[in-house]
Amino acid sequence: MANILIVDDSRTSRKILRRILEEAGHTVLGEAVNGEDGYLKYQELKPDVVTLDITMPKMDGLEALRLIKKYDADATAIMITAAGQKEKMILAIKSGAADFIAKPYEPNDVLWVIDKCMK
Amino acid sequence: MIASIVGNYLKDVGLLTEEQLHDLLAEHRKVRAKLGIIAVAEGLMTQEEAERVNRLQAIMDMRFGDIAVEEGYLTEGQVETLLKKQGNAYLAFAQALENQQLMLIEQLEQLLIDFQYDNNFTASDMEILKSDDIDQILTLFLPLEGEKYEKIASIAVRTIMRLIDLDVCVGRGYLAKRREIQNGALQEVEGKMGFTTGMVGRGNALCNLASTFGQEIFNTIDEDALDAVGEVVNCINGLVATGMEYLDNTLELCPPEYSVNAEAVSAEEMLILPLRVLGKKIDFVITIGNKLELK
After folding, report:
1. CATH number 3.40.50.2300 given to A3-118
2. CB within 8 A of B80, min separation 6: which ones?
3. Element (H or E) spanning B63, and its range?
4. What is the interface pTM, i.e. ipTM, of the complex?
5. What's the pLDDT score for residue B94?
6. Chain A residue numbers touching B192 (CB-CB < 8 A)
7. What are the domain boundaries of chain B?
8. Closest to B238 (Cβ–Cβ): which among A15, A82, A87?
C-alpha cells in the first residue's frame, strides 16, 4: 500500500480520487490545489506517490513535476488529466512522470497504475 | 435515447407521471419486445389481431409467430424479420408501457403522430428516431446550419450517458448569441481549432448532475457543485480533443470556469442544446472559434 499526495485544482476530482485510493487501502497523506502547493506539500509529506493534474491555475502539473523531480529524482509522479492532452502526456513522461491516467477513468484504472508504479 | 424522448413527450402531454416514466425507463432496459407488439408497430397486424393470437397462444401451447403464420396474419419471412427487432429500444419501451398496463402499442403509435407533427418530423425522421442511433438522432435535433457542432454534441451526449444518465433526453438545438441562465460551468479549449463548451442552468437544475458525478448530495448550486459540473465538461472536452488530435495537435484544455450567479451565457454564435438530465432541464452550449462568456 502506498502513501499518496493528490494534487488537483478540482475539489470533486480530489474527493473522487481520495475515495478510490482509501477504499483500496492506500493512505492519502494530503491534498494540494495547484502545482506550487503540491511542490511544497511534496517536500513536507514525502509521499511514495504523487498524483498530478496537468491543467491547473497558478502552476500547472508539468511545472510541478519538474520541480518535484529536481527535488527528488526518485519521485513517483502519476499524471492525471482529461483525455486529449497527448502532447502534454508525452512531455510529462519525458520529464520523468512514471505513468499517466486519462479522465474519465474507472477506479481499477487508477489502482492498476498505482500498483504498477509501486512495483 | 428514443425511450427517454418518447417517455418525456408522454410526460409533457400529461399521460405519464414522473414516477411512471422513471419506472418505464428502468424496465425497458430489462425487457425484450414481444412479437405481437412489433407486428402492430410495423403495421403488419392490428391490435385486435395481436390480442386474438395472444388468446390462442394461452390455450394452444404454440409460439406467437407460429400461430400468426397459421392464422394467415404473417408469413414465416415476416416472423423472422420481426424477431430481429426484439432488442429495439423503442419497441422495448412500448413493451414496458404495455407491461405496466399504461398504454397499448396502437395508442402509442397514434400519439407519435402528434409528436411527429409537433416536432415537424418526416416519416423517415421517425424511422431514424426509432432506430435509436444517437448520432443520427442528434442530426434531427440540431439546426441545419449547426452541422459543425455535431461531433462535439455527439461526444457530449454519449459522455453524459456514460457518466451521468443513460436516459438523457435531447431537445431542439438552436443557434443564439445570448441565453439567460443563472449558473453554470464552462471550459475553453485553446488551439487552431479551439472551442468552448459548457453546461448551464437555472436555479438548482444542475444539482442532480453535480450530485451524481461528484458522488455527494448537492441540494443547491454552489461552487462545489459547479466544480463537479466543470469536471464533467472537462471529461467531455478531453474526449472531443482526443477525437480532433489528427486534425489539430495544438489543443490545450484550460481550467474550467464557473459562475454561481450569472445572468446569461453569450457568444458571437453558440449552439444551445437543451438536455433533460436526471429529470432536470439544462443546456449544453458549444461555441467554435468564438469567446463564450458566462456573466
Report:
1. yes
2. none
3. none
4. 0.88
5. 94
6. none
7. 2-132, 135-294
8. A82
- Reply yes or no on whether the pLDDT at B82 is more than 80: yes
pLDDT digits (tens, 9 = 90+) for A68-94: 999 999 999 999 988 878 888 889 999
Q: Which residue of A has its CA nearest to B245?
A: A84
Looking at residue B60, its pLDDT comes to: 85
On whether any CB of chain A is under 8 Å from the CB of B234, the answer is yes
Residue B211 near chain A (CB below 8 Å): no
Helical spans, DSSP H, in B100-222:
105-119, 123-131, 134-141, 150-163, 207-214
CB-nearest to B235 from A56, A82, A86 is: A82
Is B128 an interface residue toward A (CB < 8 Å)?
A: no
Please judge whether B242 and A84 are an interchain contact, meaning their C-beta atoms are less than 8 angstroms apart: yes
How far apart are the C-alpha atoms of B105 and B15, rounded to whole Å? 14
Q: Is the Cβ pair A16, B214 closer than 8 Å?
A: yes
Q: What is the mean pLDDT of chain A?
A: 93
What whole-number percentage of chain B has pLDDT above 90?
A: 82
Report pLDDT for B132.
87
Q: For chain A, what are the domain ranges?
A: 3-118
Residues of chain B with C-beta less than 8 angstroms from the C-beta of A81: 238, 253
Q: Classify residue B86 by burial, with Cβ atoms within 10 Å: 0-12, 13-18, 19+.
A: middle
For the domain B135-294, what is the CATH code?
3.40.1550.10
Give the list of residues 6+ apart from residue A110 with CB closer than 8 angstroms, or none: A17, A20, A21, A80, A101
